[in-house]
Amino acid sequence: MTSRLIDLAAVLARVPVSKRTLGRWCSNGTFPRPIRCGRRVVWHDGDVSEWIEKMRVADAADMVAHGLPVYAHGDGGDIVRAAKATASKEARANG
Fold it and tell me: Per the confidence metrics, is the pTM higher than 0.70?
């Protein structure tokens, strides 16, 4: 099974956050760590897709828990909200 490698620009096109936020998420384990190929930094496309799906599920579960409607397709903001919630929970847990 082959997995396509994608660069930073492709990741940022799929995950609407700043480079700094993405770097912080990679450092604290919120987002899959990149692979260094010489000077380039790349990610496995499958890892990014799995992360996006995990965040969608987490966001949907959070919305259900709060009695809010869940939509099948969002503008990408649902991914960012779920990632920020996950990161803040981990920060609180780590003190």
Answer: no
Q: How would you write the chain as a 3-class SS string?
A: CCCCEEEHHHHHHHCCCCHHHHHHHHHHCCCCCCEEECCEEEEEHHHHHHHHHHHHHHHHHHHHHCCCCCCCCCCCHHHHHHHHHHHHHHHHHHC
- pLDDT bracket for residue 1 (50, 70, 90): very low
Domains in the chain, CATH or no CATH each? 5-94 (1.10.1660)
**pLDDT, tens only, 32-56:** 999 998 999 999 999 999 999 988 8
